[in-house]
TrEMBL record:
Probably a homodimer. It comes from Megasphaera hutchinsoni. Belongs to the adenylate cyclase family. DacA/CdaA subfamily. GO terms for molecular function: adenylate cyclase activity; ATP binding; diadenylate cyclase activity. It catalyses: 2 ATP = 3',3'-c-di-AMP + 2 diphosphate. Residues 84-244 form the DAC domain. The keyword DNA repair does not apply. This is Diadenylate cyclase. The gene is dacA. GO terms for biological process: cAMP biosynthetic process. The chain crosses the membrane at residues 12-32, 39-58.
């Protein structure tokens, strides 16, 4: 018996295989370029809309299908505008040769060292009532905010963080953004929360920490300049007056790499 698949396989040439591998490699690298930006969440949303559109067509839901098709048309037209920052960054990175870079994921020993250094400098800043704002990137990328600061890309250490937050220096008032065990940038600008129910005791640092946690999954550590109190924000909520042991536990819980598997397939991101 003849199967069409056999004919398809027999007609494959070496160049066809190379062609497929090159396309797969380019798609992987393109995803790598945008995975640490908000574009990934938008792409996932488009995929969900596409699946719903197909399902509505199969089930003959004509009105819903028509509305979804019209909506998809409008979205596709708007994509170049929505993705303008990501497209510009991707082209810049391709031009600089970043498309072919590889990287590594932080391991348990590096994570423990990272948390120890952060807790140590946070305690020191708290004692001297030196304001600080540290943002830890997780699944949702923060490149848009990294671009607003001074690029550093240095390994996290208590000495480097302490120098960054020295009062009356250019980087003191901005946020430090940390990706895995690297300080990506300092002096970064963050969006302020619009929540008017917050206590008037919370200043700009705390409102910026809450603001970035409302629109991303970042965990943010804040040291108050007025009281020296240590707080952290996540999911738009602030948790105040932490001790060193509590902060250590919080950071380990949030920053520990998630296990890879079928249940995490939608959260997977490539190595960097």
């Amino acid at each position: 018996m003849y199967f069409p698949l056999q004919g398809l396989i027999s007609s494959f040439r070496l160049l066809d295989i190379i062609d497929i591998l090159l396309v797969a490699f380019v798609l992987y690298k393109l995803y790598y370029l945008i995975y640490n930006t908000r574009a990934v969440a938008l792409i996932k949303g488009l995929l969900v809309l596409g699946i719903v559109t197909v399902v509505s067509k199969v089930l003959d839901l004509h009105v819903i299908n028509w509305l979804l098709q019209q909506g998809m048309t409008v979205i596709l037209v708007a994509l170049p505008v929505v993705f303008q920052p990501e497209l510009r960054r991707a082209l810049e990175q391709i031009g600089r040769g970043h498309l072919f870079r590889s990287g590594q994921v932080i391991n348990a020993e590096e994570l423990e060292h990272l948390v120890d250094e952060v807790v140590a400098v946070t305690e020191s800043l708290s004692k001297t009532r030196t304001g600080a704002l540290l943002v830890f990137e997780r699944e949702v990328g923060l490149n848009d905010y990294i671009d607003t600061g001074i690029f550093i890309q240095g390994i996290v250490s208590r000495e480097l963080l302490g120098n960054i937050f020295i009062p009356n220096t250019p980087l003191h008032d901005g946020a430090v953004i940390i990706r895995e065990n690297e300080i990506m940038a300092a002096g970064c600008l963050l969006p302020l929360t619009s929540d008017r129910s917050l206590s008037t005791e919370l200043g700009t640092r705390h409102r910026a920490a809450i603001g970035i946690s409302e629109i991303t999954d970042a965990v943010v550590v804040v040291v108050s300049e007025e009281t020296g109190a240590i707080s952290y924000t996540y999911g738009g909520h602030i948790y105040r007056h932490l001790e060193a042991k509590s902060l250590h536990k919080v950071l380990l819980n949030f920053l520990r790499p998630a296990p890879q598997g079928l249940v995490n397939i939608l959260k997977w991101r490539p190595l960097k």
